Inverse folding.
């Protein structure tokens, strides 16, 4: 695998949590819509299994809050998730300055 392809893979599917947390910042997101929303907004389509695994981990660690939206299981980003997302942005900005 070429370096650019490896990089793209690691910052997309390899870090799906970033995209999931950002989707839940402004509104409730139904679990079943995550893959489609990631594709529409960020341009890559994660597998359903990966989405389920990431949602499970984020919920169990308190980064997203479980909710109901239109009768379906949904989530929104919690305070801990917002902090993690802000810390990731700062780290990325510092890294880009160094590159």
């Amino acid at each position: 695998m070429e370096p650019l392809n490896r990089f793209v893979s690691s910052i997309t599917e390899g870090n799906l949590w970033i995209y999931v947390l950002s989707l839940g910042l402004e509104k409730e997101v139904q679990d079943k819509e995550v893959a489609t929303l990631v594709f529409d907004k960020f341009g890559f389509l994660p597998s359903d299994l990966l989405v389920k695994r990431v949602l499970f981990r984020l919920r169990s660690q308190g980064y997203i809050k479980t909710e109901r939206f239109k009768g379906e299981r949904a989530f929104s980003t919690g305070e801990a998730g917002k902090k993690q997302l802000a810390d990731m942005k700062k780290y990325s900005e510092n890294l880009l300055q160094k590159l």
Q: What stands out?
A: The radius of gyration is 14 Å. Helices lie at 3-11, 16-23, 34-42, 48-60, 79-98. The CA atoms of residues 61 and 80 lie 9 Å apart.
